[in-house]
Write a structure and sequence with these properties.
By secondary structure, this protein is α+β, with helices and mostly antiparallel strands. The chain folds into two domains: about 1-30 and about 225-255; about 30-210, Superoxide dismutase, copper/zinc binding domain (Immunoglobulin-like, Sandwich), CATH 2.60.40.200. Helix content is about 30%, strand content about 25%. The chain contains five helices and eight strands; from the N terminus they run αββββαββαβαβα. It has an eight-stranded antiparallel beta sheet with strand order 5-4-7-8-1-2-3-6. A hairpin with a 2-residue loop joins strand 2 and strand 3 (about 60-70). It is globular and about 50 Å long. It starts with a helix and ends with a helix.
Length: about 260
C-alpha cells in the first residue's frame, strides 16, 4: 500500500515538473534592446541626436528609431551593424586610419562591424540593400521617424542583437554646410557617391535594460518575466508535492 502511495506522489511531482517545462516557452518574454544615437566623433555633426530600439521576437525584429539635426531632404542610409570581431562600440578619432580627420564607413566598421540589416522604408532589408538610397528616409525637416517590423534574421544574429552586441548607425553628413552631399572626396564604399553621402553621422550601441529598470535608450529587459516563471514553476512543484503528501496520508489512514 505504501508503495502505491509513493507511486501516486511521484506521478504528481512528475506531472507538475512537466507543467513547468510546458509553461516555460509560453511565458518566455521577447527581448528589447535600445540606446541613444550620438554624433560620430570628428564628423562635424554635433547637433544630431536620436534614440533607437529593437524588439527581438525569435528571429523577427521590430525596429523603432527617431533622429533629428540631420541634413534635410537627403537620403540617410541607416543600418543595424554587427561584427563578431568588432569592439561593439561606436568609433572614436583613433579609428581615423587615413588621417583625414573624419570617420568613413570602413573605418567605423572596426568599432561596430558591418551591415547586417538595412533599415529601408520598404522592400528588402538585407545587407544587399545597404546603399539602396531610394528606399531610405530623406529626413524631411532634418528628422527621421522610423518603425518597421517583421524583419527576419538568422538565429545567430538574433542572439547577438539580444545580447547587446549590435549598433544602429545613420549615415550622411554635410561637412561644408552647403545643404547637399558633394565634395571632391569620394565614398569609400561607392565611388559614384561623395563621402558625405555615406560617412556615419549617428551611432548607438543597443543594450538590454538592467533587470527591474530601463536603460538610457528606453529598452525593457526580461528579468521580471524570468522571475515570474521561476515563481510559477515553484508553485507547481509545491502543488505536486502537496498532492503526493495527501495521497500518502490517505493511504496510511486506510491501512490503520
Amino acid at each position: 500500500m505504501n508503495t502505491t502511495a509513493r507511486r501516486i506522489a511521484g506521478t504528481s511531482l512528475a506531472a507538475a515538473g512537466a507543467m513547468c517545462l510546458a509553461v516555460g516557452p509560453a511565458l518566455a518574454a521577447d527581448t528589447t534592446v535600445s540606446g541613444n544615437l550620438l554624433p560620430v566623433a570628428s564628423n562635424n555633426v554635433s547637433k544630431v541626436s536620436g534614440t533607437a530600439s529593437v524588439k527581438v521576437s525569435g528571429e523577427m525584429l521590430t525596429v523603432t528609431m527617431v533622429a533629428s539635426g540631420l541634413l534635410a531632404g537627403s537620403a540617410h542610409a541607416a543600418h543595424i551593424h554587427f561584427g563578431a570581431n568588432a569592439r561593439h562600440a561606436c568609433p572614436t578619432i583613433a579609428d581615423d586610419t587615413n588621417g583625414d580627420g573624419h570617420i568613413n564607413t570602413t573605418e567605423g566598421a572596426a568599432a561596430y562591424g558591418g551591415v547586417v540589416v538595412s533599415l529601408t522604408t520598404s522592400g528588402d532589408t538585407s545587407p544587399k540593400s545597404a546603399l539602396a538610397v531610394d528606399r531610405f528616409s530623406t529626413a524631411p525637416g532634418g528628422e527621421i521617424s522610423y518603425e518597421r517590423g517583421s524583419i527576419k534574421v538568422s538565429p545567430e544574429l538574433a542572439k547577438a542583437i539580444s545580447g547587446g552586441e549590435s549598433a544602429i548607425v545613420v549615415h550622411g553628413v554635410d561637412y561644408n554646410k552647403n545643404g547637399k552631399y558633394d565634395g571632391a572626396t569620394k565614398s569609400d564604399v561607392d565611388p559614384a557617391l561623395p563621402t558625405e553621402a555615406t560617412d556615419p553621422a549617428l551611432c548607438g550601441i543597443l543594450k538590454v535594460a538592467p533587470a527591474g529598470g530601463m536603460n538610457t535608450g528606453g529598452g525593457g529587459g526580461t528579468g521580471g518575466s524570468n522571475q515570474g516563471l521561476i515563481v510559477i514553476g515553484g508553485a507547481l512543484l509545491l502543488a505536486g508535492a502537496g498532492v503526493g503528501a495527501f495521497a500518502l496520508k490517505r493511504r496510511a489512514n486506510a491501512a490503520a
